[in-house]
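User: I'm putting together notes for a lab meeting next week and I want to include a structural view of one of the chains we've been expressing. I don't have a solved structure, so I'd like a prediction I can at least talk through. The sequence is below, exactly as it appears in our construct file.
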Amino acid sequence: MFRRSVALAMLLALSAVLGCTTTAPFITGLTGLPSSIIIPATVVLTASGGPGSSRGLFTWTFSTNCGGTFTSTTTPNNGPANPITIGPTDATTVQVTYDSTSAIPGACTFTVKLVTSSGRSAMLQVTTTIWLPAGLSLTKGDSPDPVLYGNNVTYTLTVTNSGPGPATNVVLTDTLPANMVFVSATPSQGSCSGTTTITCNLGTINNGANATVTIVVQAKAAGIDLVVDDDAGTCTYTGTVTDTATVTATEPDPVPGDNTATADTAINANYATISAAIAAASTGQKIFVCLGTYTEQLSINKALTLIGASSTNTIIQGTGSDIVTISSGNVTIQGFQITTSLNNINLSGIKLAQLGAVSNVTITDNWIRNLNTTATYAIGISLQSQNSNVSVLNNQIENITSNGLAYGILLSEAGGMGNNNVLIKGNQVSAIQGALAGIGISVNDDFHNVTVEGNTVSNLTSPGAGKRVVGIASGGTAGTPSNVTILNNTVSNITWTGTNIQDAVGIGIGDTAQGVTIQNNTVSNCGVGIGLATSGINIVINNGNDILNNQVGIGIATAPQAGWAANYNNIVGNALFGAQNTTATSFNAENNWWGCTAGPGNPGCDTVSFDNVDFTPWLTAPVP
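Assistant: Thanks for the context. Below is the predicted structure for the 624-residue chain, given as structure tokens.
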């Protein structure tokens, strides 16, 4: 015994001297195991390792705590089994196939173990999740289809689970399309929330079971109550809308392509004519008119908003003298082209009735064109003296002609309110011509507190001697307009025939108009830039008007009254006179820039009628 111990000690000492060491068995890795396995999938696993310094054969063992079976082509083995033992063998790389058909779903640990013949071992564990799939599918139907705009549509959604496992945490999501307003959502189980995106938490749906959700919506865009469509083109608020819903669950779905469903719903306009929609509308409602041509004559006799899809292609083709008549307050008309082929009757594009109740009216973004008649008058937009709080904004008015008088925008008549409070702003007016007179914007008669601002008036031509055209005018014989502000407008190319420059006036104040302020306008290429021929008081032309390149810049045809003045303007390049006063009463034209530092009559400066225009002192630099 003693001798054996000594011998063993000597052997160990010799090994140390020779540099021999022992190493443990090892496993370098397990590949092929995904982060999740969906029953009944199979996966191929590869393990690599070795026995270390141990001699002889060794065994491999594969196992998992979730059930299922392993098989291997490396022999010998006891597969299919769980665990499976492979060996004894000297294979340092082995493959097994794992079959999850009989596995138990959940978090799983896969264990690989290598054991040498001497009993030494190595072990590696890797985790994954095994799922029992839930085959969800979603179907969706809609009723009625088609639906009239403003009516309800019911979407019925059915979620079915074809298994083999239960679906947990089932969530159905339905994002409503534009032009659909949420009414209600009712699930057969769980709960729903939301008004634009509907989210329904349906809980668990077992294998072979289903759940339904009923969603009711109104085929209506927010803020639009009625829709008119002649079906001539596409429309924002009619046509086919698509509603899409999806369903999800915690478990994987073997066929995810059927987790989404759609329903296409045709929305039809509820009216084919504008007149029918107006008749049906309740007070305060908003009517949208789709692209198309509507051959009719409109009477707006209640408070409402009438919106056209486009002033280019939403056309009211008039069938009567007054194409659109407004006889109620609180009306807006916007976005139409208004025209007619009638040519032998008096015409107006939009006319407000002579009623005090016609107030709070907005006429905006319309295109009024081609009102051409052999009758007495043609008017783009007509306001009456009892109207109040009216805004005429950003309209385009062109080619208005008659055998008598023609107006782009006309404010007229006696018996006014005393305070009309009218704003005429941002309009473009051109080609207005009557055989007797043509006026772009005219504030006449018994109108008071009117602002004419930021408009562009151009290309008016007098047809002959005594046939006057005026860009912007104030006057009339059926009352005395007052408190009129003409501000920031551009008036150009108001032209005459022959030598009758007085027939082509950029801004004209006549008759008895009083209390008119003309500020910061640009008036150019007219016979007379600004013409005064009124008996009224307080006519002020000041604060930066550019009166340029006319024949006469400022023309005075009646004796100046108290409060008349033209100060701090740029009066330059006018061919005959910068200022001409044909009366014996002096006109105050002090502190203007005349085109040169030396003053009127000098080279580079406009001239004036010296006897009756007070131009001293003058400015020595332009008004900015």
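A couple of points you could mention at the meeting. DSSP finds two helices and 55 strands in the chain. The first strand starts at residue 26 and ends at 31.

User: Perfect, that's what I needed.
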